[in-house]
Amino acid sequence: MRKYDLIVIGAGPAGLFASINAAACNLSVLLLEKKDRPGRKLLISGSGKCNLTHTGTPDELLSHYNGEEKFVKPAIYAFDNKDLIEYFNKMGVPTLITENGKVFPASFEARDVLNILVDDARRKGVSIKTSCPVIAVKKTNKGFIVKATDKTFESSALLIATGGKTYPWTGSEGDGYRFAKALGHTVISPEPALAPFFIENFSLGELSGLSFKAARVSLWKNERKIVEKVGPLLITHKGFSGPVILHLSREAQTGDEVLINFLDIDPEKLKNDLLTQKNMLVRTSLKKLGYPLSLVDKIMQNCGVSLKTNLSVLIKAKRKCLIKALTSYRVKITKAGFQFAMVTKGGVRLREVNPKTMESRKVQELYFAGEILNIDGETGGYNIQFAFSSAYLGAKAICHRLCSL
Ligand SMILES: Cc1cc2nc3c(=O)[nH]c(=O)nc-3n(C[C@H](O)[C@H](O)[C@H](O)COP(=O)(O)OP(=O)(O)OC[C@H]3O[C@@H](n4cnc5c(N)ncnc54)[C@H](O)[C@@H]3O)c2cc1C
User: How confident is the model over 133-148, as pLDDT tens digits?
Assistant: First the structure.
């Protein structure tokens, strides 16, 4: 049986980039992918546009990994957003930055990003085997035995980049957690993060697509406020999404409540405005304050206020109902599961992995990269950046170790 220097499991951005960088130092690399094509999740990232990374200094990037700055620092410092942009520019994929600092391929085509990675891997001599699901891994005193459904492979080093558990149809079904456990690692229980909220009998569903630039949203558990954030909010057919919801979702559980102030307007100010402006339709007055008419009409309907009602005849109870619905819209949520969440919170315990090399502290020559680790970044390009950074750092460490043997 041919023995490879390195076997990489999973051809997402982490696995592809680790393979490229290991092959660049003349290691023989076998990349095994379960699906018929590499990078299925990368193709749907950023709604198919692929938000590759985010602008900012390396230190600014570090603050977007939910408190795991210390662990991600060596990886981000080794390969930061500028390196990532430079890599793609050099490979013929120009990038652009949107007004909120997100970096995309200028074509807004995730396929361009994936094609470059696959071409680069092939050009560097990486052997890519698709439709090749790994089912078991074993450490021997000579290296690793990797068993796929119909073949067994052998290598000196092993890098697991099987991703998390979200959007399982893309291939990321959590297999890597099983391999990590079999090799002696602890896996922090995976949970969906960056997930939308669904609302039972959602009364605003027909406003799907309506968005707000800066809504104030708080998350409540058993009548206790857990966290509050301001940011873009999107109404969907089934509930709420958008960056502010995705951020909150990390702390949320089904049965919690959210309280939404759609325009982040002080309820007292809204009350004063409604009391002081006379001789004006209620809906005109609310529109002047910046509320979209579709929302106003729906809220008025929910509060039993006719659209022709003038402020001068708006009774106290109805005014209170409108103010509450616009500034304290309170609903119980169902947190979307792995099928709809963008990343997985949880994964291989960080304490068991050396952040300077991505090597396991339990098994020599075993490495991890990307979302399989217990790292989940915020929305905005931070997760793909970490996939690249950790893959780069891991590959460099593997090169260093195997080339010095
Ligand atoms: C809808 C959506 C949109 C997103 N948008 C963005 C975005 O715009 N920006 C951003 O930064 N992040 C985004 N993310 C998150 C980002 O895509 C992931 O964090 C990133 O792809 C993780 O890379 P990875 O290589 O670690 O894992 P993955 O991309 O999940 O790749 C893992 C690979 O391993 C393979 N695999 C799994 N098990 C096996 C096995 N047993 N044998 C062989 N192969 C196996 C899988 O088939 C898969 O190809 C998005 C996620 C989703 C779901």
Answer: 999 999 999 999 999 9
